[in-house]
Amino acid sequence: MFRNQTLPPVDPLPEAYEPIVKIRNLSVWYGERQILGDINLDIPRNRITAIMGPSGCGKSTLIRCLNRMNDLIPGARIEGQVLFNDQNIYAPEVDVTELRRRIGMVFQKPNPFPKSIYENVAWGLRIRGFKGNLDEVVERALMQAALWDEVKDKLHTSALNLSGGQQQRLCIARALAVDPEVLLLDEPASALDPIATLKIEELLREISENYTIVIVTHNIQQAARISHYTAFIMWDENRIGRLVEWGPTRDIFTNPKNKCTEDYITGRFG
Predict the structure, then answer these.
(1) Tens of pLDDT along 11-33?
(2) May I ask the CATH class of domain 14-111+180-265?
(3) What global pTM score does this model have?
(4) DSSP string for 38-101
(5) Domain regions of the chain by residue span
(6) What gap in Å lies between CA 138 and CA 144, rounded to an integer?
């Protein structure tokens, strides 16, 4: 199905990547219900890693573990380790606020603040007491998000007046303004039209030279188009999400090692 599709270049050997995040024996419960079981996965630095799988398999739960967003869910319990630059983010001494600056997140539905375009981008810097030139940082972040040319003459108008695709790129600019190392995106284009989706995908490919990107998607074609590495998650007989296969995207889509992966990417289920 995807054999004739142009895919992004990937490292020639698995040993060539440098992991910025290492997930080790990660299991997650919401109350009594186990969502994920024994996930072991590396996130290569300055690459796009796509996490795909059917709805309800635990994809969003997994990336929420990477900046401790699951801490906000009552009854959530996590076992295992998430190592960010070889430090366990669940260690008691970790500053969660600083962690979330370094590992930013963009959600499925655009969620701009009911403020101006400028203040949306500047907000995170202001609350951190930034003393530099806000105008320069706002412009840089909007340029990185491929939005500057569209909004430079209306920076002080409401962000809520932007289109859905522009709002999502604004949310990406807001995350980039505080200079993260990793950007997590939870199905960022699922509510957008094809043109806006293409702009988001092109943007992600461009900024992956400087940022590590983890994107959750149930869109198989999107994973094939934009990612360097792909992880496939599927539930087991107990409805617990398990990592089925992970590797360079080209390998996953042209020569999957697991029959379940092959069935999923060829549309036999999902």
Answers:
(1) 544 556 799 999 999 999 999 99
(2) alpha beta
(3) 0.91
(4) EEEEEEETTSEEEEE-STTSSHHHHHHHTTTGGGGSTTEEEEEEEEETTEETTSTT--HHHHHH
(5) 14-111+180-265
(6) 10
